[in-house]
Amino acid sequence: MDRIAQLEARLARLEDEREISRLIAAYGPLVDAGAAEDVAALWTEDGVYDVDEIYLEGREQLARMVRSSAHQGWISGGCAHFVGPPHVTVDGDTAIAVCHSLMVVYQDDRFVVRRATANHWALARTDAGWKVTRRTNRVLDGRAESPGLLRQGAYGEPAFL
Predict the structure, then answer these.
(1) Structural domain span for residue 114
(2) What proportion of the chain, given as a percentage, has pLDDT over 90?
(3) Confidence band, pLDDT 50/70/90 cuts, at residue 60
(4) Is there a domain that residue 160 lies in?
(5) What does the pLDDT read at residue 1?
(6) Which of 86, 128, 142, 149 has CB 3.0 to 4.6 Å from 120, enough for a Cys bridge?
(7) Residue 130 belongs to a domain
(8) Within a domain: 159
């Protein structure tokens, strides 16, 4: 491969990583704003969001979660979903990303971390850009599967749960 082709390949990889990082960074502000359709649009049509206590499949279920009275209660009470910077591994038209997230809530006149979570993202390049195909979250409460998700993602491996 000549020097120009190498530079083009490196630039394409950086652009992919940047787009994926921006997609992941958009989740917190959008979900805290209650932007249900915009949150759902981060996923593919059949995308999955697998959280400890819930399993959502498809954009309609994702949007419904954001519109739910439980989620709206978090927003009206004061809530911030902070998603840390992701470690992204791109492999052609698919990618794996891993990061931490915190759910911070306003409670008793102060902010409290409600949960700290391991996040494993599987993504695919689509005609509309990068989209989430599966997001797997597990609370970092000492269970082995949570750091396992972080380890798998750091090595660009799919989630094995």
Answers:
(1) 3-154
(2) 97
(3) very high
(4) no
(5) 73
(6) 149
(7) yes
(8) no
Scored b (16 or more CB within 10 A) or e, 46-78 reads: ebbbbbeeeebebbebbbebbeeeebeebeeee
Asked if residue 96 lies in contact with residue 72, where contact means CB atoms within 8 angstroms, the answer is no
Does the pTM of the predicted model rise above 0.85? yes
In tens, the pLDDT along 79-120 reads 999 999 999 999 999 999 999 999 999 999 999 999 999 999
Secondary structure string (H, E, C) spanning the chain: CCHHHHHHHHHHHHHHHHHHHHHHHHHHHHHHCCCHHHHHCCEEEEEEEEECCEEEECHHHHHHHHHCHHHHHHHHHCEEEEECCCEEEEECCEEEEEEEEEEEEEECCEEEEEEEEEEEEEEEEECCEEEEEEEEEEECCCCCHHHHHHHHHHCCCCCCC
Asked if the structure places residue 56 within a domain, the reply is: yes
Q: What is the model's pLDDT at position 30?
A: 98
What is the number of structural domains in the chain?
A: 1
Which of 139, 114, 141, 124 minimizes the C-alpha distance to 23?
Answer: 124
Specify whether the CB–CB gap between 149 and 120 falls below 8 A.
Answer: yes
